[in-house]
Amino acid sequence: MTFDIEINGRTRRVTLEPERGSAAGPQRFSVRVDDQPVQVDVRATHLGWSILYLDTGRSVEVALTEGRQGAWVAELPRVAVAAQVDGRRAGRGASGAAAAQGDQRILAPMPGRIVKVLVKPGDEVAARQGLVVIEAMKMENELTSPRAGRVREVAVAEGASVEAGRLLVIVE
C-alpha cells in the first residue's frame, strides 16, 4: 500500500508491505518513507501500536486518534503530531483530488485551543494555505486548506477551546 501523508506541512511518500505475523503476535512490515527503507514489528495495544524498529532495536508507543477527512493525531511519548493522509488509501485515485471536491469542512483533529485564525469569510485561499493554528499538548499545528477555494465560514475565534471534531472553517 502506498500513500502520501502530510505532517506539519511536509508531504512524505509512505509504502507499507506486510511480511509476516499473526493475530496473536507482532506483524512485520517493510516500510519505505521517501525511499528510505526500514523494517518494523508492530503489535496492537489498547491505545494504538507498539512499534519495534528491527535495525536499531528501538521501540516506541504510538497512540492514534482518527479525525474526519483523513486527519489523524499520532501521540508519541513527547509530542503529538497531526497528519493528513491522501485519498489513495481509500482508493480515490493518484492525486487525492477526489477528496477535495465540494465544500471542505476543516475540523479540529484533537482537543486544544485556537491560537490564531489566519483567514476570514470571503478570503480566497490556495491549496495547503494555513487557515487556523491550534495548540494541543504544548504543540502548535497549522491546519491548511485541502484545495484552493473561498472561505465560506470561520466557526471559531482566537483563544477558543475546541474538542476533537469541532468545525473550524468551511472552504468552498
Largest sheet: 8 strands, antiparallel, barrel
Distance N to C terminus = 31 Å
Radius of gyration: 17 Å
Strand arrangement, major sheet: 1-2-3-4-5-6-7-8
SSE order: EEEEEEEEEEEEEEEE
Mean pLDDT: 77
**How many structural domains does the protein architecture include?**
2
The helix-and-strand class reads mainly beta
Number of helices: 0
Strand percent estimate:
over 45%
Number of beta strands: 16
Percent range of helical residues: under 10%
Account of the 3D structure:
With 172 residues, the chain is mostly beta strands. The chain has 2 domains: 1-101; 102-172, OB fold (Dihydrolipoamide Acetyltransferase, E2P), CATH 2.40.50. It has no helices and 16 strands. The chain has strands at residues 2-7, 10-21, 27-33, 36-44, 48-53, 59-66, 71-75, 80-85, 104-107, 112-117, 124-125, 130-136, 139-144, 149-154, 161-162, 167-171. The strands form 3 sheets. Strands 1-2-3-4-5-6-7-8 form an 8-stranded antiparallel β-barrel. A hairpin with a 5-residue loop joins strand 2 (10-21) and strand 3. The model is unreliable at 87-99 (pLDDT under 50).
Which features characterize this protein?
mainly beta, 2 domains, elongated, single chain, eight-stranded antiparallel beta barrel, OB fold (Dihydrolipoamide Acetyltransferase, E2P), 172 residues
Topology, element by element:
Layout lengths: L1 E6 L2 E12 L5 E7 L2 E9 L3 E6 L5 E8 L4 E5 L4 E6 L18 E4 L4 E6 L6 E2 L4 E7 L2 E6 L4 E6 L6 E2 L4 E5 L1
Antiparallel strand pairs: 1-2, 1-8, 2-3, 3-4, 4-5, 5-6, 6-7, 7-8, 9-16, 10-12, 10-15, 11-14, 12-13, 14-16
